[in-house]
Amino acid sequence: MTGLGRRVLVIAFDGWNDAGEAASAAARRVRSAHRYEAVFSVDPELYFDYQYTRPHMRAEGDGGRALVWPEATMFRPVAGDDPVELWVLTGVEPARAWQAFAGELIDAALSHDITGVVALGSMMSDVPHTRPISVFAGSDNEALRAELDLERSTYEGPVGILSVLAQAAGVAGIPTAGLWASVPHYVAGQSPSPKATLALLSKLEELTGGRVERGELPAEALAWEASIDAAAADDEEMTEYIRQREQTRDAWDSPAASGDAIAQEFERYLRRDGEGPTKPGREDPRR
Question: Which residue among 14, 179, 183, 204 is least crowded, i.e. fewest CB within 10 A of its CB?
Answer without folding.
Answer: 14
